[in-house]
Design goal:
This protein is of the alpha/beta class and 218 residues long. It has a single domain, classed as TIM Barrel (Alpha-Beta Barrel), CATH 3.20.20. Helix content is 32%, strand content 19%. The protein has helices spanning 17-26, 49-58, 76-81, 97-106, 152-165, 183-189, 198-201, 206-214, and strands spanning 4-7, 32-37, 63-68, 86-90, 110-115, 133-137, 171-175, 193-196. The model has no long low-confidence stretch (mean pLDDT 96).
Length: 218
C-alpha cells in the first residue's frame, strides 16, 4: 500500500493560503492535515472555523482535522460542517472517549484518536475496533519544527500489534518531525499516513518533496 501523505496546513504561508491549497491540490498529497489549537490543551493557538471554511472552498482532497483542544465534543458537528472528513480528538482531552468517537461517527466523518508522546497506546484497547485512524504524535503537540522523538518507532509496532489483535481497520498516522530521513522506516514499522509540515512547505519544491515522500515505501 502506498503511504498516505497529509501535508500540514499549519506550516503553510497563511498570507497566500489559497495558492498553498491549490499547490497541494496539484501535488501527490492525499489529504490536507488541519491542526486546530485552542491555547489551552496546547500552548499555542492556530485557527478555527472561518479559516477551515476558506480552505474547503479551494480543496477537493479530504480534510484530516486534528483537534488539539479541550472539550472537543462541543464542536464536533461544527467541524464536520466546516468540511472535516476525518476528525481526531486527543485521548488526553476526552473524559468520555467512546462517546466522543460515536459522536464523530454520527456526523458521517471518520473517527480518529491522537496520542501524545507520553501516552501508552494500550489505553486504546477498548476503543481501537471503533477507530478509523490513530494519530501518534512524534513530537510534543503545539508547535511545528520540533525534533522527531525516536520512541515513536516502538509505539508504531505496539499499535500495529493492538490493531491486528482487535481486528481493527484503523490506519496509523505519524505527526511531527517527518522527513526524508525517517519516512521509510516509519512505513516499514507499520505507519500508513505521514503528516509533514515544515519539511514540505519550507522546501524549495514542495510538490517534488511530496512526491519523494510518496515514494518512501518503494
Amino acid at each position: 500500500m502506498n503511504p498516505i501523505i497529509a501535508p500540514s496546513i499549519l506550516a503553510s504561508d497563511f498570507a497566500n493560503l489559497q495558492s498553498e491549497v491549490e499547490m497541494l491540490e496539484k501535488s501527490q498529497a492525499d489529504w490536507l492535515h488541519i491542526d486546530i489549537m485552542d491555547g489551552r490543551f496546547v500552548p499555542n493557538i492556530s485557527f478555527g472555523f472561518p479559516v477551515m471554511e476558506a480552505i474547503k472552498r479551494h480543496a477537493t482532497k479530504p480534510m484530516d482535522v486534528h483537534l488539539m483542544i479541550v472539550e472537543p465534543e462541543l464542536y464536533i458537528e461544527r467541524f464536520r460542517a466546516a468540511g472535516a472528513d476525518t476528525i481526531s480528538v486527543h485521548i488526553e482531552a476526552c473524559n468520555h472517549l467512546h462517546r466522543t468517537i460515536q459522536q464523530i461517527k454520527a456526523t458521517g466523518a471518520k473517527a480518529g484518536v491522537a496520542v501524545n508522546p507520553h501516552t501508552s497506546v494500550q489505553l486504546l484497547d477498548d476503543v481501537i475496533a471503533d477507530l478509523d485512524l490513530v494519530c501518534l504524535m512524534s513530537v510534543n503537540p503545539g508547535f511545528g519544527g520540533q525534533k522527531f522523538i525516536e520512541n515513536t518507532y516502538r509505539k508504531i509496532e505496539a499499535l500495529k500489534n493492538l490493531i491486528e489483535a482487535r481486528n481493527s481497520k484503523a490506519l496509523i498516522e505519524v505527526d511531527g518531525g517527518v522527513n526524508e530521513n525517517n519516512a521509510s522506516l516509519l512505513l516499514d514499522k507499520g505507519a500508513n499516513v505521514l503528516v509533514a509540515g515544515n519539511f514540505v512547505f519550507s522546501s524549495a519544491d514542495p510538490i517534488q518533496t511530496i512526491a519523494d515522500l510518496k515514494k518512501s515505501s518503494n
